[in-house]
Write a structure and sequence with these properties.
It is built from 14 helices and twelve strands. The chain is an alpha/beta fold and 307 residues long. The chain is globular and about 55 Å long.
Length: 307
């Protein structure tokens, strides 16, 4: 049952002809009032399809709201907390990409969606953790500048014939870097029948011990279709919140109880209510940067929809 505050938010959203998009890492109370919940790719595709709403309330972090704004230049995109940033997205600047392109002039540039708009403007195409291999395979050149997550770059490199060149040299998600092989050994001893699912942002030795390496959307699909009943999940803890709400016949166990993205948790119900009333904080992108970024984002969406 929804709380009175949750119901109030839904009513305010409807009055403004708005839609609430929530990332899988948002707290359960926000997931419950979201019109759509998904991973980065799913949210990109959903944002590209919104044509009947005036206001998009994006419950996630900065680069996600920026992507929604790029795909919806005529709509107002708001994020409940202005400080909800993705640390990894800030690890790769547009200038660093330009320098890498000078060193590797024949390389394609495939950037993780976890980048800021100014970086996306320097990309040939955008990828997510769920489609990175497929997108890279569709590129014309054998050399691919890939960033900012080094572990995702290594994951892709293992499964493609292309030469993957990571940019920057050190780029990572601090949440997924928390996981180690000791965590897997401990949880596997406690839950010997559980399948181990980890995110490709985890270190390679952690990926190697997993039964499957999947995006958050891929993990949701895996649970939905699997006959197994127990799963150890190596990603941010609130994906497990969603899993246990949607799959009551199965048990999802966090690989690490404190695998928490702190900036994802900056959004809360009070801030969402205020953001809808005040229509802030509005996400605005420089027009030239938005125009250049749009090409790379749309190219990714086209490949993903046609697979």
């Amino acid at each position: 049952m929804l709380s009175s505050l949750q119901e109030e938010i839904i009513n305010l959203k409807n009055e403004k002809n708005g839609i609430i998009l929530g990332h899988n890492y948002q707290p359960g109370k926000i997931q419950e009032i979201s019109d759509f919940i998904g991973d980065s790719l799913e949210l990109c595709i959903k944002a590209s399809e919104i044509d009947d709403r005036d206001l998009i309330i994006f419950c996630g972090v900065d680069f996600m709201a920026e992507t929604a704004a790029i795909l919806n230049p005529d709509k107002k995109i708001i994020i409940p907390d202005y400080n909800a940033e993705c640390p990894m997205a800030h690890m790769l600047s547009a200038n660093e990409i330009k320098k890498a392109k000078e060193r590797y002039p024949d390389a394609d540039v495939a950037l993780y969606v976890n980048t800021l708009a100014e970086a996306k403007a320097e990309a040939d195409i955008i990828v997510t953790s769920s489609n990175a291999i497929e997108v890279v395979e569709n590129l014309d050149n054998n050399q691919v500048l890939f960033g900012p997550d080094n572990n995702l770059a290594k994951y892709v490199a293992k499964q493609t014939h292309k030469e993957i060149i990571p940019i920057p040299e050190i780029g990572y998600c601090y949440v997924h870097k928390m996981f180690n092989i000791g965590d897997i050994t401990f949880k596997k001893e406690k839950y010997p029948n559980a399948e181990i699912l980890v995110h490709p942002e985890a270190d390679m030795e952690v990926q190697d011990m997993a039964d499957a390496v999947l995006s958050t959307g891929g993990m949701i699909s895996h649970l939905k279709n699997s006959k197994n009943k127990e799963f150890i999940i190596g990603t941010e803890v609130d994906l497990i919140t969603r899993m246990n709400r949607e799959f009551s016949d199965k048990i999802a166990i966090p690989l690490l109880d404190d695998g928490i993205c702190k900036t994802m948790k900056l959004n809360n119900l009070d801030k969402i209510k205020k953001s809808i009333i005040d229509e802030e904080f509005q996400v605005k992108i420089n027009k030239e940067i938005a125009k250049k970024s749009l090409k790379a984002i749309e190219r990714m969406i086209e490949i993903s929809k046609n697979k």
